[in-house]
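Encode chain A's predicted structure.
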Amino acid sequence: MWPADLVVLAAGLLPDDGLHARCVGAGTVAQVHTIGDSFGPGRVFEAVKAGYAVANAV
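Encoded structure for chain A:
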């Protein structure tokens, strides 16, 4: 296992927040943010905009 300060995961074609729920439930990370298409289908611009907003808030 390698230590990391930041992990960005983009996978799948259908919305699925299961990984987010498991990460939060396990309590193994300090912060977990779900953005973009994990809520519903969207466009690249909206996903990038959401990522930018979360990054500025962290």
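The chain is about 40% helix and 0% strand.
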